[in-house]
Amino acid sequence: xxxxxxxxxxxxxxxxxxxxxxxxxxxxxxxxxxxxxxxxxxxxxxxxxxxxxxxxxxxxxxxxxxxxxxxxxxxxxxxxxxxxxxxxxxxxxxxxxxxxxxxxxxxxxxxxxxxxxxxxxxxxxxxxx
Length: 129
Prior knowledge:
By secondary structure, the chain is mainly beta. It has one domain: Jelly Rolls (Sandwich). 11% of the residues lie in helices and 52% in strands. It contains two helices and eight strands, in the order H-H-E-E-E-E-E-E-E-E. It has helices spanning 4-7, 11-20, and strands at residues 38-46, 50-56, 61-70, 73-80, 85-91, 94-100, 105-114, 119-127. Strand 4 and strand 5 form a beta hairpin. The model is unreliable at 1-12 and 14-33 (pLDDT under 50).
């Protein structure tokens, strides 16, 4: 079981990661999907944190699928452009999350596999309502 301490993300680390990808544009991709809508992020990371940026319009639904492929767990964080955390979860196996964007603009996802040989995947898609 993951302790509460592990679940709490260092705010400076999060803001630093968000700032690092602030100018990175993420293009959509096609293929099979665990989420509904237009896939804008589909990444796998092994043993290191992944940070991505995607753009959303107000009222659109953001779907996130995260899978712990190897390791004890995966931390998933999603924040809006104001750096307000919308999702902060620790996932043991796999989970789907969704929310409706309240504002247009950049949103950020951070996926951190827990463990030295950990591996995790994340897929973010956007759906018009």
